[in-house]
Please model this.
Amino acid sequence: MEATLTPALVDGERVAALSGATLDVINPATNTVIGRIPRCDERDVDVAVAAAKRVAPGWRSTEPPMRAAALLAFADAIEARGEELARLDSLDNGSPLHEMRNDIGLATSQIRYMAGLALEIRGATMPETAGRLHYTTREPFGVAARIIAFNHPLMFAGTKIAAPLIAGNSVILKPSEFTSLSALAMADDLQRLFPPGVVQVLTGLGGEVGDALVRHPGIPRIASTWPSRARSAA
Model:
């Protein structure tokens, strides 16, 4: 029986890689193929970045309490699907189920914390002479990319997108090629709760889609957690 493809999330749509290429999802405990994910590349990154740039002004202008409400709803969705997501992570990366269940609570608490900071993103005013006002404002960068590691897939995916989203950035998430299933499962909720293109999920090899994200001139901010050499060589 052929393994089922779990599509990426690009510009609000669940899609395969433009090339049609895929990667097998292997359960490390049994060494069996349990699914397939898109093997995205530079072309998919270009499409995602164009979408992220297009929608960034609208998300930036969304009132902070509304951005917070979307994040809180996202945390609720993760919590409601917690057992399903924890089991996906356990199958995908071989970690004990109890550890992955614990990650659900860590993820939701961090997302809710970030949502609570929506009204704390402020500038400052500085004393000046009469008739003058000096002030600073905090502005989103526009597009942020997040490349996450394999060992805590759900927790990293949920928490790493929360801060840039609450600050008004659109986000492109690249999960580890070894453990992408929970991020792709969360894409169902991201697709439902956020405007198309505000959050996108691209899967594939670090040396292909990851490298394209890092080098792309349309992404001014990126954060990553690199896996260990031993795991990445496995």
Summary: The chain has a mean pLDDT of 93.
